[in-house]
Design brief:
This protein is mainly α. The protein contains twelve helices and no strands. The protein is elongated and about 75 Å long. 33% of the residues are buried.
Length: 294
């Protein structure tokens, strides 16, 4: 009988190279930032902000991942994809900003959130289509991981725009940005999975409610760009209970659709014996799970 233990704590006890890889990544980032900004002080500000923002996201992803058996490498890959999406959105926003001839503040409040949430949403849709996301918990994990990766690039960009801001301001903003991007993408992912569980086929309409909520929350956050402390407080007040509410309502909606109670159990046994189970709500739900994990 072989017994194995996993998780961050046991990796630490075993002397896993995880911490070494993180140190190498931080060193590489410091070198790149030093070359880009030209001074140690300018390098430390975005690096510190990134550590705090990523730390917030990774801790949230870590807490969520203990609820489900998921390879810890997979959320890390999702975060890297989020970084790539942020870079793509940087160029898309630059082009759209020039094409619309809007001032930066107006664009950031009303158009930017649509572009950025759409980019992150494409990753979530691809993960669902690739059968990497099947339940609400892993939807929250992958959503938060993608959003956290996105927040790294955005924090560096805003530090470039305002290099004179103090380190405390950027630590607060980095924390708020990570929670905002991670939270909105997690809400989109959970709402989409909940809608798809009730729909026999994947349709664009199943993704619309979660996308609308994500865009509204993102736009609200961007209305407070000039007040990083206030925006972070607003995120802390609004997002955690909203995430919990979306999770609870989504689970309840699926439970109500499937039904519960003795009568439902009796009907299910009757459906199984008569061969009508595949056409029942429970049968359709199991069929949707089967399609999702093929």
């Amino acid at each position: 009988l072989d017994v194995e233990f996993g998780g961050g704590g046991f990796q630490t006890l075993k002397g896993s190279p995880v911490s070494g890889s993180i140190a190498i990544g931080l060193f590489a980032a410091a070198v790149v930032l030093l070359l880009a900004f030209g001074s140690i002080a300018s390098m430390l500000i975005p690096l510190t902000a990134a550590i705090f923002s990523v730390g917030a996201g990774i801790e949230m992803v870590g807490l969520l991942s203990h609820r489900l058996s998921i390879n810890s490498i997979t959320p890390s890959v999702a975060a890297l994809i989020g970084i790539g999406v942020a870079v793509a959105c940087y160029f898309a926003n630059g082009y759209a900003l020039g094409a619309t001839a809007m001032d930066f503040t107006t664009y950031a409040r009303y158009i930017g959130p649509v572009v950025e949430e759409f980019g992150k949403a494409l990753v979530i849709v691809a993960l669902i289509r690739a059968h990497r996301i099947g339940f609400l918990v892993d939807a929250a994990i992958f959503g938060f991981a993608v959003g956290t990766g996105f927040a790294i690039v955005e924090n560096l960009y805003y530090q470039y725009l305002a290099p004179d801001a103090g380190i405390a301001t950027w630590v607060v903003r980095g924390f708020g940005t990570a929670l905002m991007h991670g939270g909105t993408t997690a809400i989109f992912a959970m709402a989409s999975v909940a809608m798809l569980e009730r729909a026999p086929k994947s349709t664009v309409a199943a993704f619309a409610p979660g996308f609308a909520i994500a865009v509204v929350l993102h736009a609200g956050f961007n209305h407070l760009l000039g007040w990083p402390r206030l925006s972070t407080i607003a995120v802390l007040i609004v997002l955690p209970p909203l995430l919990f509410l979306v999770f609870q309502r989504s689970e309840k909606a699926v439970a109500d659709w499937l039904g519960h109670g003795f009568d439902v159990d009796t009907d299910m046994l009757d459906a199984i014996n008569s061969g009508r189970f595949p056409a029942s709500a429970a049968g359709e739900y199991l069929a949707s799970l089967k399609r999702r994990f093929k």
